[in-house]
Amino acid sequence: MKILYICTHNRCRSILSEAITNTLAGDVISARSAGSQPSDEVHPLSLKYLDKAGYRTDGLTSKSWNDVENFQPDIVITVCHSAAGEACPLYFGDSVKFHWGLEDPSKLKVSESEQEQAFRACIEEIEQRVQILKVIIEQNHNNSDLRDALLALEAAK
Q1: Choosing a second label site near 154 at 20 to 30 A (CA), which of 75, 87, 126, 127?
Q2: Residues near 87 by Cβ (< 8 Å), separated by ≥ 6?
Q3: CA 71, CA 89: separation in Å to the nearest integer?
Q4: Domains, the chain, ordered by start
C-alpha cells in the first residue's frame, strides 16, 4: 500500500509522518510526502527530533506533489488544514483521501523545551495513528471499506 502525506510546505508534519510510517509500517506501507508549495528545505527541528526519537532522516527532502506524480498513492493524507482545503492534482483521482489535521510544532513561538515537548507530542500522535493505520491496511480493505475504517478511526479520537 502506498501513502502520500501532503502538507502545504512539506517541511514538518508530512516529513515526520513519512519517516515514522516507513519505520513503523514499512513492511506493509511505502510512504512519501510532498507539498503544494514546498519550502525546498526540511525544517531543521523536524530532523533533530526525528533523530532524537530514533527515526532515520536520510533522504528526507521537501518536494512538490508534482515530483511524486509517478508514485500513484493508494491513500493521500493531508496533515495540515490549509492542504486539506486545496484541490489535489488529478493524478490523485483514484486515491482514498483523508485528513489528519496535525498541529504544527515548528511554528510555535515558545521555549526550546516547550518546542521539544510539542514535537514529541506530534511524533507520538503520528506513531499512534500509523500503528492503527497499519492494522487497518493489513485487513486488506477495498477502497470503500478503507475509507470507512479511516473515518471510524478519526471519529473515535
Answers
A1: 87
A2: none
A3: 13
A4: 2-155 (3.40.50.2300)
